[in-house]
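Summary for the lay section of the report: proteins are chains of building blocks that fold into shapes. Here we show the chain for Small ribosomal subunit protein bS18 and then a coded description of the shape we predicted for it.
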Amino acid sequence: MDVVVPEEVEKEKEESLEQEGGERGASPEKEKKRFFYSKKVCRFCTGQIKKEEVTYKNVELLRRYIMPSGKILPRRITGTCTKHQRVLVAEIKKARILALLPFLAR
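The coded shape description reads as follows.
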């Protein structure tokens, strides 16, 4: 008959837990993969879009920053900085007043 010492029992438990890759009672819900999003950078600050291009006349550029429903996309979605978001909003509003962009999409 083999006599098992309590220390050996605990070592075996720890080894089995390490092999399983979790702690006691760890549910599969906690083991879900985490998604990491890259930080959005302002296209105007990096120079991808020239600041001179942001005018009420450049409708194609302004449409990128409008939802299909006609709403202006927020900073957290577009990634623009506060300074350039204000400029974008002002130019979009000018284009709406001049009927270059719709206030609401149908």
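Put simply, here is one thing we learned. The chain has a mean pLDDT of 80.
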